[in-house]
């Protein structure tokens, strides 16, 4: 399990400003339920002073998303719009006394929601830059501009860090090379050289040179045992079907088989596997195991 600060726990169990502000004159919507996180931020801005008098949030996401959104509303109340625009995702993290690396994207989502809400109040069309750059991560609809801006703002140096902050690269891994190119570009601008982390180097090496099939299967089953209680609590389960190099075929069972959050669940489990195995893997769901793969383990 992730190590949450007492402040994160406090704002998760007793969130502040979890509401839709009455007579809000600034509204910001970011994220997507299909991707696992969505946030609506509503503001009541004094037209004369430009001070944010009230702020509320409605979020579809994990405990970190709730805590981050709550923290954001507490930070910006009483600030002018220009002051609020200076709030960064790191300010949200600091207010929470830290977030697990895997949950940093929740703070980035809060910062974007604030920018969107202020633009809405001002009658501007907010551009999140997602349409301005080439789409890098198709699984979570993250483009090159967002990745580059996040890398620069947070001094990120690995694909794993980018995934933690933006979710890009956290699912099928097809975009890792594109993310590496962006990191390389940013570091080059700063006079540094990009060096892939050990997990990335292992992913590029032949599977046979890293771990035996038996070792990999044992690790996969261990991770499944770790996540299974949470899946069962939601009425679902996961079964290992076959391992083919970096591809891990699984069958989602029970409520997980047809849940609209299945892709987010797979991304979460895949991230756990990547961290545990020290290599990038791709988790692939199959409906009919006997037809999809050659055989079972």
What is the gist of this entry?
The protein has 3 domains: 6-121, Alpha-Beta Complex (Sufe protein. Chain: A); 135-196, BFD-like [2Fe-2S]-binding domain (Arc Repressor Mutant, subunit A, Orthogonal Bundle), CATH 1.10.10; 209-292, GMP Synthetase, Chain A, domain 3 (2-Layer Sandwich). It has helices at 6-13, 63-76, 81-84, 89-95, 104-121, 144-154, 159-166, 176-189, 198-204, 213-233, 262-277, 289-292, and strands at residues 26-32, 37-45, 52-60, 135-137, 142-143, 236-244, 247-254, 282-285. It is of the alpha+beta class and 297 residues long.
Describe the structure.
With 297 residues, the protein is of the alpha+beta class. It has 3 domains: 6-121, Sufe protein. Chain: A, CATH 3.90.1010; 135-196, Arc Repressor Mutant, subunit A (Orthogonal Bundle); 209-292, 2-Layer Sandwich (GMP Synthetase, Chain A, domain 3). It contains 12 helices and 8 strands. The strands form 3 sheets. A 3-stranded antiparallel beta sheet has the order 1-2-3. A hairpin with a 4-residue loop joins strand 1 (26-32) and strand 2 (37-45). The relative contact order is 0.09. Mean pLDDT is 82; it is low at 201-210 and 291-297.
């Amino acid at each position: 399990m992730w190590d949450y600060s007492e402040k994160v726990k406090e704002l998760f169990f007793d969130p502040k400003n979890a509401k839709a502000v009455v007579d809000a004159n600034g509204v910001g919507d970011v994220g997507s339920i299909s991707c696992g996180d969505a946030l609506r931020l509503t503001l009541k801005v004094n037209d004369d002073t430009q001070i944010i008098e009230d702020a509320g949030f409605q979020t579809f996401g994990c405990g970190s998303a709730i805590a981050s959104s709550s923290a954001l509303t507490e930070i910006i109340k009483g600030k002018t719009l220009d002051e609020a625009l200076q709030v960064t995702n790191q300010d949200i993290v600091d207010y929470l006394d830290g977030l697990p690396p895997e949950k940093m994207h929740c703070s980035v989502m809060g910062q974007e929601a604030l920018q969107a809400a202020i633009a809405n109040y001002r009658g501007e069309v907010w551009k999140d830059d997602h349409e301005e750059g080439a789409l890098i991560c198709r699984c979570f609809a993250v483009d090159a501009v967002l990745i580059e801006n996040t890398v620069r703002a947070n001094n990120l140096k690995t694909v794993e860090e980018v995934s933690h902050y933006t979710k890009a690269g956290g699912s099928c891994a097809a975009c890792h090379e594109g993310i590496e190119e962006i990191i390389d570009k940013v570091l080059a601008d700063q006079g540094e050289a990009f060096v892939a982390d050990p997990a990335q180097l292992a992913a590029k090496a032949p599977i046979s040179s890293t771990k035996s099939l038996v070792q990999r299967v044992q690790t996969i089953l261990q991770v499944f045992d770790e996540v299974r209680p949470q899946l069962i609590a939601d009425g679902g389960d996961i079964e290992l079907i076959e391992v083919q190099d970096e591809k891990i075929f699984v069958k989602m069972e029970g409520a997980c088989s047809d849940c609209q959050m299945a892709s987010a669940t797979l991304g979460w489990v895949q991230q756990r596997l990547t961290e545990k195995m020290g290599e990038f893997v791709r988790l692939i769901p199959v409906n009919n195991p006997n037809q999809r793969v050659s055989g079972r383990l």
